[in-house]
Design a protein that fits this description.
There is one protein chain. 27% of the residues lie in helices and 31% in strands. Strand 1 and strand 2 form a beta hairpin. Helix 3 packs parallel to helix 5. Strands 3, 4, 5, 6, 8, 9, 10, 11, 14 and 15 form a ten-stranded mixed sheet that branches. It has a five-stranded antiparallel sheet with strand order 2-1-7-13-12, with no helix packed on it. The protein has two domains: 74 residues, no CATH class; 153 residues, no CATH class. The chain is of the alpha+beta class.
Amino acid sequence: MIASAKLRLTLGLVMASLMLLTATSLTAQEVLTNESVVALKKAGLSDPLILTKIRTSPAKFDVSTKGLIALKSAGLSDQIIEAMVGHPGTPASASAAPAVTAALPPPAAQTTQRDSIYHLIGGKYVELRAAVSSIETNVAFFASSSELVLKGKKAQYRVSDKQPVFYSAWPPNEAPLVRLKQGDDHDDRNLKIGSGGFHPFGGTQKMGVRSQDTIDVDSEKDARGLFKLTPKQPLSSGEYGFIVTMGFAAGASGKVFDFGVD
């Protein structure tokens, strides 16, 4: 009887300790609010760091109309506010989901051609249009180089967000994001895509997007079969484009969905 009583007492102490540890852990885990995110911004933390904090922390955000206006007035970027609205712990996110879904582009499986790239801005999807492009090849003594050329020094579609979010029908290896070089003497934008050397007994020819011209992106495939693409680092002002690489080997120019960052 004494041994049984001691066993019950020991088990009770163990259970009490576990409950205390669990309660302490839950209490110590910070829950982000609108005020804490604004405080991070005022402390001078960068947007990428704040976004990481939002994505990895439990949160209870006020995303009512009044709350969103207050966040914007506090100087938060649209990207941070969007992350707060879409956070799983945000009470209003469940009711807001149907409106966002209604504005989404159709799944890739329901389209006859995989030829769309969308820019997500302010909860709306803007479809980028493929620019007119051509391939120009320059041949010198025992050497050649090829460039993809787009008309105009600047793209018509402009964005101000340094880390814009895009949805693409292609994975990033099939339609990489690249930076385009403005022409020095002509009204155009260029991207080097090929080079080669010729010798009396053979030669080499390379065709494709160079790694030094490619912008690294975070990629996530959603339920519709589209790829959410976000630059890993903020983009500097300049000209950019998604280059559909299919057809390069055959000498085709491919499609270029271009945009500029101001």
